[in-house]
Amino acid sequence: MTDLSGIQSALAGAAHNLIDSLLGDLLSFGPNQHTRLLRLHTPLGSDVLLAERAQITEGIGPRQTQPAYAIDLLALSTKADIQPTDLIGQPVLLELLTANSTTQLRPFHGHVLAFELLGSDGGYARYRLQIGAWLDFLRHRTDAWIFQDQSVVEITESIFADYAAQGALQPKWRWDLKDAAAYPKLSTLSQHAESDFDFLQRLWAANGLFCWFEHSGDAADTSTLGSHTLVIADHNGAFQPNAQPRIRFTQAGAVMKEDSITRWHGVRRVGASTLHTASFDYRSVSNHSGSADVDAGHDQPMPPVHADQPGAYAFETPEEAQRLATVYLQSLEARRKQFEGRGTVRTLAPATTFTLADHSEHDLDLLNLGGDTSQFVVLNVVHRARNNMSADAKAGLQQLLGGAEHLLGGEHAPGQGRAAGNTSTEPLYEARFEAQRAAIAVRPALTDDSGALLHPKPTVWGTQTALVVGLDGPIHTDRDGRVKVQFHWQRGAGSSHRLDHNAGDNAPASDASGTWVRVAQDWAGANWGSAFIPRLGQEVVIAFVEGDIDRPVVVGAAYNGQGSDNAQGNVVAGGAANATGNAAAWFPGSTRQGEQEGHAHNATLSGFKSQSLDASQAGGGAYNQLVLDDTPGQGRVLAHTTQSQTWLQIGHLLQQNDNQRLAQRGHGLELHTQAWGALRAGSGMHLSTHARRGGTSSTQGQPTNTREAQSQLQSHAELVKALSENAQTQLAKLPNEAAPDKLPVQLAMQATVTALKGTESSGGESGNANEDGGEVIAIDGGHGSIPAMDRPDLLLSAAADISSATPAHSVLSAGQNTTVTAGQDTNLLSQRHAAWAVKDGISLFTRGEAKDGQRAVQDVGMKLHAASGNVNVQAQSDAFTLTAEKAVDIQSTAANITISAPEKILLNGGGGYIKIEGGNIEVGTSGNASFLASMKELTGGGSASAPTIAFPHTEHDGQLALRRSDGRAFAGAKVKIYREDGSTSVATLDSRGRIPRIDTGTQMESIQVRLIDHETWHIDEDFQAASTNAPCCAHEHDDDDDELVQYFEVVNANTGEPIQGMKYKLLDGDTPLIDGAVMQRGQTIQMPINQHPDELTIVMWQ
Question: pTM for the complete prediction?
Answer without folding.
Answer: 0.72
